[in-house]
């Protein structure tokens, strides 16, 4: 069995690229279900109901991260959407779910856990290691496929999470940095791992934003408006193959594909 995981979708261009490329990627790599990180879908900052509806027919689960509440309406809207997760290690007072069991006609049940890192990330979060340990105790033993989106900045924190969960989950996939890393591998015990899946955003950009503005900000230290680039969109993703009976990952493949947008 295979699933597709798409890196942080940035802006309208990123959503359009998902609509253009995901159906063919799902066919090509035979993926009955698809998870996408959508924390930058609304003009690069957070997400809202319109964005979720926009890509809902194309993805089965939308994970998020530190930008989850950037759009003020979303704390009220999140409850309408079963497929959206927010980081599990945020305050229990925040709306939404941090993990959930999903059912897919092609692959049966699978659990997805969304976690946020604590190093070099704006918002405070509880310890992701303790949080995931508790969640794994709660997941019924019949669920064999468990996928973790670890949305974090520090490569060390992500690598440590991969080794912490090796043999316990099907995949630990890093998001947030918008740059795909070259370390996709299968850890002992059958856990697929990559430090960062990358993004679905403009190929010529700095993490999806206007190159000139970001360069200017770094050169001068002056505030600049970082416009989201909505053309020349590249979709970064991962395909994980796993054993349906045991949940063990057998292969991980990285993908980067240009859209026509
Ligand atoms: Fe992020
Ligand atoms: Fe992001």
Mind explaining what this structure looks like?
The chain has a single domain, classed as Purple Acid Phosphatase, chain A, domain 2, CATH 3.60.21.10. Helix content is 23%, strand content 28%. It has six helices and 13 strands. The strands form two sheets. Strands 1, 2, 3, 4, 11, 12 and 13 form a seven-stranded mixed β-sheet that branches. It is globular. The two termini are 30 Å apart. One fe (ii) ion (FE2) binds next to loops.
Q: Report low-confidence residues grouped into runs of 5 or more.
A: none
Rg on CA atoms, Å:
17 Å
Category by helix and strand content: alpha/beta
Q: What can be said about the biggest beta sheet?
A: 7 strands, mixed
Q: Superfamily at the CATH H level?
A: Metallo-dependent phosphatases
Comma- or semicolon-separated keywords:
six-stranded mixed β-sheet; alpha/beta; Purple Acid Phosphatase, chain A, domain 2; binds fe (ii) ion; 261 residues; 6 helices; seven-stranded mixed β-sheet
What is this entry, summarized?
By secondary structure, the protein is an alpha/beta fold. It has one domain (2-258): 4-Layer Sandwich (Purple Acid Phosphatase, chain A, domain 2).
